[in-house]
Amino acid sequence: MKRILEVKNLTKVFKKANGESHTAVNGISFDLNEGEIFSFLGPNGAGKSTTINMVTTQLSPTAGTIKVDGEDIQSSPINARTKIGIVAQHNNLDRGLTAHENLLYHGRYFGLSKHESETRAEILLKDFGLYDWKDDYVKSFSGGMAQRLKIARAIMHKPAILFLDEPTTGLDPAYREILWEHVLRLNKENKTTVFLTTHYMEEPERFSDRVAIYNKGEIKAIGTIDELRKQIPSESLIYLKVDQTSELFSKQLSKLGTVKSLKVVDEKNYVIYPNESKKALTEILHLFEQSKTQLENIQLSSTTLDDIFIHLTTDEEEK
Ligand SMILES: Nc1ncnc2c1ncn2[C@@H]1O[C@H](COP(=O)(O)OP(=O)(O)OP(=O)(O)O)[C@@H](O)[C@H]1O
Ligand SMILES: [Mg+2]
């Protein structure tokens, strides 16, 4: 299978305002195949956009190598750039141009003929609901309109690899579906590889071939969702919401025979990995009878990508 992206030991160290160093990306390595849909998931500030910015030639790495379709991006950045489409997290449209001009200039820059650019721009402006605003300047656009134009621009030239950095943030549900229709069509007809970051877990669940869970500059797990599910201690989970989590209550929970392990998610929420889920529910409810901690909600569910994400990105209480 053809490798479209090869990343080795990629590292980025930033200097903070106080002079300290911050390692946003800490020597990560991964490869993507042609036609693969890959989700790169991680908490806010984990380093996802920094990774995308380096891989798409917008930011120089501190160390490491990146190849796009076999081309080293440091020695031949222009060749690499022609194969890439990017929906950046921030608004990087040309605000002094109209919507139509943004698309046309992009198409021409990426080697489409004038006719091809016009045809493709018209289709995309219509599909993304911007045709009636095509001659308006981007600076007058709402957040959602600008996001739709960024998406249209990124897919204008049918790139070999498409980077989507939280593309559906700010999009209404109807346009989310239109985005995915276009992306899946490109993936099918053009074998476009997709590198997605998102905080909406239903998107990787619906569309991804593989997922990486990334936190604090490192890839914690990579594989299909089923492969990642095997890294969760149990197949069902108990979500527990209390008035206030505490060390004492966490210890009491941990000591229950039916609790395999638990995580303190925040000041009100626990995720509990039970040995025997129904017995664990009874034991936990019983615990509240003797505790000052107040129960607000308790729920049993089977593991989802959300659970895998939480498991791999929050610290676990030692049992
Ligand atoms: N230009 C910069 N200078 C200094 N620090 C930076 C710079 N860009 C990013 N960082 C830092 O690197 C870390 C990772 O940021 P990044 O934007 O990659 O996170 P992210 O995973 O994309 O988060 P989010 O989900 O919020 O978009 C953060 O701590 C951020 O403050
Ligand atoms: Mg980001």
Automatic annotation (TrEMBL):
Keywords: ATP-binding, Nucleotide-binding, Transport. InterPro entries: AAA+_ATPase (IPR003593), ABC_transporter-like_ATP-bd (IPR003439), ABC_transporter-like_CS (IPR017871), DrrA1/2-like_C (IPR025302), P-loop_NTPase (IPR027417). SMART domains: AAA (SM00382). Transmembrane segments: none annotated. It comes from the Bacteria. PROSITE patterns: ABC_TRANSPORTER_1, ABC_TRANSPORTER_2. This is ABC transporter. It comes from Vagococcus carniphilus.
